[in-house]
Amino acid sequence: MTKQKKKQLKPDKITKEITGLMIDKKAIDITLIDVRKITPLTDYFIICTSESDPQTRAIFNHIKDSLKEKDLKPWKTEGYEYLQWVIMDYIDFVIHIFNKETRSYYDFERLWADANITKIKNS
């Protein structure tokens, strides 16, 4: 497995852009988890909840298309066929789009409680 080339985007800029893209599609409960100090897996988890399958598709496609315009393509995606928990892995950050039940069940904030967790306000 080869790692995707790192893009020269500042973490604050890209995470803010992604959360903005989630807000564009009316995602709820948006959370940024900074795990740089506690795991080598990634730098950030960017999480949101979707209220329906069509909304999950819309969030996924909006993020994928917008980041592709900046030459950022996911290294791997999973879950799109079931839409309960869709993962977009960009190496330095991993995006999780959950439906309400799956988000509640896995409770990422509890799992990563040692990380710096920021709730994003939908304006």
Please describe what this structure looks like.
The chain is 33% helix and 27% strand. With 123 residues, the protein is α+β, with helices and mostly antiparallel strands. It has a single domain (11-119), classed as Beta Polymerase, domain 2 (2-Layer Sandwich), CATH 3.30.460.10. Helix 1 (11-24) runs antiparallel to helix 2 (53-68). The longest helix is centred in the middle third of the chain and has 16 residues, at 53-68. The termini are far apart.
Task: Provide a brief overview of the structure.
The protein has 123 residues and is an alpha+beta fold.
Q: In terms of topology, how is this protein built?
A:
Blueprint: H1 11-24, E1 28-34, E2 44-50, H2 53-68, E3 76-78, E4 85-89, E5 93-99, H3 100-106, H4 108-111, E6 116-119
Parallel strand pairs: 2-5
Antiparallel strand pairs: 1-2, 1-6, 3-4, 4-5
Helix pairs in contact: 1-2
Which key phrases capture this entry?
123 residues, alpha+beta, Beta Polymerase, domain 2, 4 helices, disordered N terminus
- In the CATH scheme, the class would be Alpha Beta
Helicity level: 25-40%
Number of strands: 6
Shape: globular
**Percent of residues in β-strands:** 25-35%
Count the domains: 1
Mean pLDDT: 92
Secondary-structure element string = HEEHEEEHHE
**Alpha-beta content class:** alpha+beta
CATH topology grouping: Beta Polymerase, domain 2
Compute the separation of the termini in Å.
40 Å
- Low-pLDDT parts are 1-8
